[in-house]
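Private note to self, pasted from the team thread so I don't lose it. Backbone tokens:
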């Protein structure tokens, strides 16, 4: 990982692999993703629309993540 400015992927990998809490951090990060994705998915795309990101795309990301988590872990 570049010390000056890691990519987002490098940052997430570092979060998942280097924690004083060991592998428990992985469950925490996945749960945090699930909680936020659920919060976004229950809103309409218009409610999560911002000048930076289209609400339809943001909402779509949330639904996609929930589908992938369900496929891997079930509900």
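Design output:
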């Amino acid at each position: 990982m570049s010390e000056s400015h890691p990519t987002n992927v490098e940052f997430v990998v570092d979060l998942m692999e280097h924690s004083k809490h060991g592998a428990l951090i992985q469950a925490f990060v996945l749960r945090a993703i699930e909680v936020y994705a659920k919060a976004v998915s229950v809103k309409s795309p218009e409610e999560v629309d911002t000048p930076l990101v289209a609400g339809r795309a943001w909402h779509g990301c949330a639904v996609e993540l929930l589908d992938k988590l369900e496929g891997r872990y079930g509900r």
